Amino acid sequence: MNPPPPGSRFQLWPRLRTAWAGRPALTIRTRLTLTYAALFAVGGSLLVLALTTAFYRLIFQPLPDDAVPSRLDPDHDHFIGLSDQIRDAAASHLLRIALILLLAVVATSALVGWWTAGRMLRPIAAITAAARRATDTTLHERLNLPGPADELKELGDTFDQMLERLDAAFVTQRRFVANASHELRTPLALTRTAVEVTLAKPEPTEAQWRTMGQDVAQSTARAQRLIDALLTLARSEQRVTDPVDDDLADVAAEALDQVAARCQERNLDLRTDLAPSPVHGNVALLGIAATNLLENAVKYNREGGLLQVSSGQVSDGSGGGGWAELTVSNDGPLLDEADPEALFEPFHRGRNTRAGDGRSGAQQAGAGLGLSIVRAVARAHGGEVTARARPEGGLTVTLRLPGSP
Fold first, then answer.
1. Which of 202, 264, 321, 345 has a CB 3.0–4.6 Å from the CB of 403, allowing a cystine?
2. What Å distances lie between residue 80 and 60, 63, 96, 237, CA to CA?
3. Model confidence at 360: pLDDT above 50
4. Burial code of 243-253, b = ≥16 C-beta within 10 A, e = fewer?
């Protein structure tokens, strides 16, 4: 079969289709303007057609019988013909004027529609400009769009809320990285100092080498605990995988077994009330959360203090699974009302944070990520964790998770 000759309509149509597909897309402002103009043109054309039709019907309808003279004038036919010519000319002139006026009105409406569309779409242009210049250093800027509470105003407010959340996330991330860098620097500095001090001696003794080895081992263990805690925190902030039905009371009982020896060492008054609390979640993460709660309660408790652990199920009034709760209370120093919320921040150890007084002791052995991990686990399961300072001293932390039906 011979190919179609060049320039034939068989080759013209693919070129036209390719050219049409490759044209630049029309902006929403242009589309709105064309829509306004097209609607006005259609409406105006119908109006002109209706007026012209009515005009023709009125001027070309026959005269009524009482309007026809009984005695015809010799020039009657001449006058009738002249009258028809005048009416035809008037109708044609009216039609031309109507079409010219229609074109002028359509052009004016297109210009007015272009300006109106620009005014209406100005908030979208502001949102687009803000999105283009949004970086980690400009997330504090807000649109604060003026105007009535319409869809565009709602879109601008939603964009401002998104910027606010992103700004808070970036601030938290920068603070977390800075704190993590500082925390990791401390054991590395201790390790380097122990090695340099030992190597600087002319003839180190075996006891000095052993002391250096112990210092290095302790610093390495501290760095390892911190890295493990960071990995656990990162894992806890992800969505829950492989959820199963379990009981929060059983999870708390297993966590109690891990801290039982330290409770005896500190002569703590352990009181438990573990009622059934069905829950649906990741068993490993729930175990980490319960263990962290109890380890913090033991570590920051006073000698011979109270450690109270209780669990139960709270109804949400909807007839579903309700909420599964685990509450841990301990004795300790008096805390301000604002302190408990700050304890959920990463690397926060109350008065023993990096910004605190720097005193050494058992309370500084932790990385300051225990309650942060508990909060991350709670959020990953769709729950929450709250802390409340006890009037007599100490803290009460409540872990609340969606219950299993």
1. 321
2. 12, 11, 24, 95
3. no
4. beebbbbbbbe
Other C-beta atoms lying within 10 Å of the C-beta of residue 286: 28
Question: How far is it, in rounded angstroms, from Cα 366 to Cα 152?
Answer: 50
What are the sequence ranges of the domains in the chain?
A: 243-402
Which has the closest alpha carbon to 266: 308, 300, 225, 310? 300
**Cα(19)–Cα(15) distance, integer angstroms:** 6
Helix (H), strand (E) at residue 395? strand 395-402
Q: How far apart are CA 52 and CA 50, in angstroms?
A: 6
Rg, the chain, Cα only: 41
Q: Which residues contact 46 (CB under 8 A, 6 or more apart)?
A: none
pLDDT in tens, 162-221: 888 888 778 767 766 766 676 677 678 888 888 888 888 888 888 888 888 888 888 888
Half-sphere exposure of 135 (CA within 13 A, CB side): 2
The residue that leads in pLDDT, 97 or 63, is 97
Q: What is the DSSP string of 221-233?
A: HHHHHHHHHHHHH
**H or E element, residue 146:** none
Q: pTM for this one?
A: 0.52
What pLDDT is attached to residue 196? 87
Q: Are 372 and 233 in contact (CB under 8 A)?
A: yes
The gap from C-alpha 70 to its chain's centroid, in whole angstroms, comes to 90
CB 317 within 8 A of CB 324: no
C-alpha torsion angle, residues 32, 38, 39, 42 (rounded to 10)? 180
Specify the residue for token string 């109350």. Answer: 350
| Cα dihedral: 80, 82, 88, 89 (round 10) | -160
Rounded Cα distance, 152 and 140, in Å: 21
- Residues 196/198/199/204 CA torsion (nearest 10 deg): 180
Confidence grade of residue 353 (pLDDT, cut at 50, 70, 90): very low
What homologous superfamily is domain 243-402 in, according to CATH? Histidine kinase-like ATPase, C-terminal domain (3.30.565.10)
Cα–Cα distances (Å) from 17 to 10, 14, 338, in that order, read 12, 5, 68
